[in-house]
Amino acid sequence: MPSVLTSPLVSTQWLADHLGADELVVLDASVHTAGVGHTMTWTTAQDSYEQHGHVPGARYADLVTDFSTPDADLPFTRPSAEHFERAARALGITNTSTVVVYDDSVGEWSARLWWIFRSFGFDDVAVLDGGFVKWRDEGRPVRIGSLKNRPVDAADAFFAGEERPLWADRSRVERAVDGSQPAALVLAADETVLGTDHPALVPGTTPITLRHVIDQDSNALRRRAALADVFAPVLAADEIVTYCGVGSAACVDALALTVLGHDHVQVYDGSLADWWRREPEPIAS
Questions:
Q1: Residues in the chain with pLDDT < 50?
Q2: Please, what is the Cα angle at 117 between 99 and 148, to 5 degrees?
Q3: CA distance 83 to 88
Q4: pTM of this prediction?
Q5: So what's the pLDDT on residue 282?
Q6: Residue 164 exposed, middle or buried by CB count within 10 Å (0-12, 13-18, 19+)
Q7: Is the backbone of residue 258 left (phi > 0), alpha (psi -120 to 50) or beta?
C-alpha cells in the first residue's frame, strides 16, 4: 500500500516509520550557496549527498539543472512540463508515487521542489519537517554513497498535470504594487543575504523571513499558532505573493501559508533577481 499523506509536512518519525514502503520516493533536494546578492552562486550538493550522507534510500534531485529550465536568463527558473517529467521519471517517480522531499539547510530547496510538484498537479508530495538536519541530529540512520535509480516501465511513466496558477511573474507583482490587482507581498529572504547593491524590498512588502518561520532549535517550521502570529499581518489578504532572491526561500513562506490553510498563494518566480533587472521608481527602502 502506498503511504498516505495528510499534510504538506511529514515528521522525521513518520518518515522513519514509512521508509521502504511501496511507492514511497524520498528526495534530497539540497543546494549549496556562496556569496550574497549578485555575487551569490549555487552549486549542486550531490557530492555532499554521497560523501556526507543522506536518508537511507533517498535519491538526489538536482534543482540547479534537472528541476530548473536550462540556459534560462535567471537561476532556478521553473521547468517546463516536459523538462519536469523527464527529471521526475529519471528518479523513478510515477503518478502513483508518494514523494517526500528534504534538504540539508532550512528547507528552502525542499519547499521549492515541493512547490514545483504541486504546480504541476501532483499532490502526493510533502516536505520533511526539519529536513536532514533534524533527521541527523536525532541520531537516525544515515547512508553514505550514491543510490542507483530504479528504472520505470514505459507504462508507468510520470506525466505532469495541467499547470496550476501557483507562480507570479513581474507583471503580477507590479499590479500588486500599483493596486490594480491587490495582493499582499511577502519577502522571505533575510536582507543580509541580498547584498546592498539594490534596495531589498518591493514597495508595499511585509518582511516575514525564514528566521521568523523556522524554529532555530529544531530546524522545523514553528508550530501552527506561532506561524499564525507571524503571518497575522497578511493572512486576511485575498491573495499573497511571496518572493526572495531567486524564488527558493519564498517557497518556505508559501509552505507555511499552506499549512495555515491559505489557498491563494503564489511564488514570484525569479523574485528579486528578476525585479532588480528593471527597478521601477520610486522604490521602497
A1: 281-285
A2: 45
A3: 9
A4: 0.93
A5: 44
A6: exposed
A7: alpha
